[in-house]
Amino acid sequence: MKLTEHQIQLIDKALIKAGINYIDIRIELTDHIAAALEQKDERFEHHLKGYMLAHKRELKKLNIRFIIIAMGKAYKQLLITLLKPLFLVFTIVVFTTGYVINTFFGKAETILTLYMAYIGICCLVTSKSGASLFDATFNRKKQYSYSFSFAFIYVLLFYPTMQLFFHEEYFNDTTLILCFTAVIMFSLAMFITAKQFNKQYKLQYHG
């Protein structure tokens, strides 16, 4: 039998109940389960429940495997973004801008400007135009598998960036500018990569 949209939704709900949280992983496993259940008779919910019980361990393993594959692709794309010539040029521009501001306006103005640039990127990421940090961290059922790891990196970057801002007297000017440039560009690269993957996944899974 050919599965209906309602039956596909039932598979999705069963996967969520089984602890398969991320959208892209559930879609992959839904296709896997649908292929097996299409050969069964009309008692769909009965067969679905039986399949989930019989293959629970296998589905957990596939979940981990697909997450690792998806994250590997995301980090590979992140590295590609960081190493693009245009991105490297922009990194030099950000560092040079910080250095020029420091020369003419002093350390305090430089750190404030770079810190506000970092906060601006964080706001962009958590806005409607970017990946929701809240959803990625606390509501995984609405996110793709790479989103949590990217959100976690943003959280990890926030504390040392705050330390740089509030304890700038412990660092020399060049070190501060270099650190802020690295944080800003890495955050921007994650945002760009996330946007690329969101677009790719929507085209792949939603047409």
Low-confidence stretches: 128-134
Mean pLDDT: 83
> How much strand?
under 5%
Radius of gyration: 22 Å
**Which structural class is indicated by helix and strand composition?**
mainly alpha
Distance between the termini: 24 Å
What is the succession of H and E elements? HHHHHHHHH
Q: Strand count, sense and closure of the main sheet?
A: none
> Count of helical segments?
9
- Globular, elongated, flat, extended or rod-shaped: what is the shape? elongated
Residues in helix, %: over 70%
Provide the domain count: 2
* Total count of strands: 0
Task: Describe it.
It is a single chain. 25% of the residues are buried. The model is unreliable at 128-134 (pLDDT under 50). The protein is elongated, with a radius of gyration of 22 Å. The chain has helices at 5-17, 23-37, 44-54, 56-83, 85-105, 107-126, 133-138, 145-166, 173-206. The protein is mainly alpha-helical. The longest helix is centred in the last third of the chain and has 34 residues, at 173-206.
